[in-house]
């Protein structure tokens, strides 16, 4: 996909953050947009920010499998084709393995993994049909390394990475005209930390303040990096200097990265 002009792009979680910035960046490239979110107010603000582009907005809870499949059919009906799907919607949880509830664990997995998996599978036939398709799944740097108190988020984001990398290989082996990219953002200045659920012993204010210090990249910069990666057909799109650093450490050290994370976590997470 060397040109995005007139391509139909689907973006979940488009009501704020990276999702909103992606909608704006894709609109600037001439895309026709199918945007969704559970936050109708935020989604309306995103649509308003786009100006004169072809866009339709949809209320969508990505934890609802049936709703995702119905959404895929509706978008295909509304636009006549689907070329690009960005499974971006996500949530966060900060809690230890001992403390997190089953409900919170399921909440993260249903949105951050199953939302991506169902979103990919629901739209894949339409992407193949287009003859020029691309799946972009948002993982995280926490899909590259394990981090204390992020076991649920790690579980989802590692799963997204494995699922997406396997799909890319399948599409090549099956000679399907669908490219696949997995995105690993570092700290992005979005509202995800403020909206995160916390374990009962977590210092919520301290953790959110710490995240703000580590959020090195704006959503707009993240979106531009992702769009460039799509046009270059990159299999792994790293977003932000911290993402590049973590990827390099992981490649160089293997499992030996863990003492570094432990030292960082003792200072910043166990406060």
From TrEMBL:
Domain Ketoreductase, first and last residues per copy: 7-191
EC number: 1.-.-.-
Root EC class: oxidoreductase
PROSITE patterns registered for this protein in UniProt: ADH_SHORT (PS00061)
Coiled-coil features, chain-numbered ranges: none
Domain of life: Bacteria
Record GO terms (molecular function): oxidoreductase activity
Keywords: Oxidoreductase
Family: Belongs to the short-chain dehydrogenases/reductases (SDR) family.
This protein's name: SDR family oxidoreductase
């Amino acid at each position: 996909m060397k040109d995005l002009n007139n391509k139909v792009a689907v973006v979940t979680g488009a009501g704020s953050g990276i999702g909103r910035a992606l909608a704006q960046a894709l609109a600037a490239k001439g895309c026709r947009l199918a945007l969704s979110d559970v936050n109708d107010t935020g989604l309306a603000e995103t649509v308003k920010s786009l100006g004169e582009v072809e866009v339709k907005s949809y209320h969508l809870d990505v934890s609802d499998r049936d709703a995702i499949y119905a959404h895929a059919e509706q978008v295909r009906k509304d636009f006549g084709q689907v070329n690009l799907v960005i499974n971006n919607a996500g949530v966060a949880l900060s809690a230890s393995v001992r403390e997190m509830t089953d409900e919170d664990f399921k909440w993260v997995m249903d949105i951050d993994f199953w939302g991506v998996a169902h979103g990919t599978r629901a739209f894949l036939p339409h992407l193949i049909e287009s003859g020029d398709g691309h799946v972009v799944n948002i993982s995280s740097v926490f899909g590259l390394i394990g981090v204390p108190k992020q076991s649920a988020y790690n579980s989802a984001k590692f799963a997204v990475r494995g699922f997406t990398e396997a799909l890319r290989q399948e599409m090549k082996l099956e000679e399907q005209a669908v490219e696949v990219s997995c995105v690993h953002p570092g700290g992005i200045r979005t509202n995800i930390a403020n909206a995160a659920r916390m374990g009962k012993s977590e210092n919520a204010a301290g953790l959110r303040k710490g995240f703000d210090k580590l959020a090195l990249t704006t959503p707009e910069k993240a979106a531009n990096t992702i769009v460039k990666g799509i046009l270059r057909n990159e299999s792994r799109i790293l977003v932000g200097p911290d993402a590049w650093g973590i990827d390099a450490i992981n490649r160089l050290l293997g499992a030996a990265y863990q003492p570094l994370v432990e030292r960082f976590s003792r200072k910043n997470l166990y406060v």
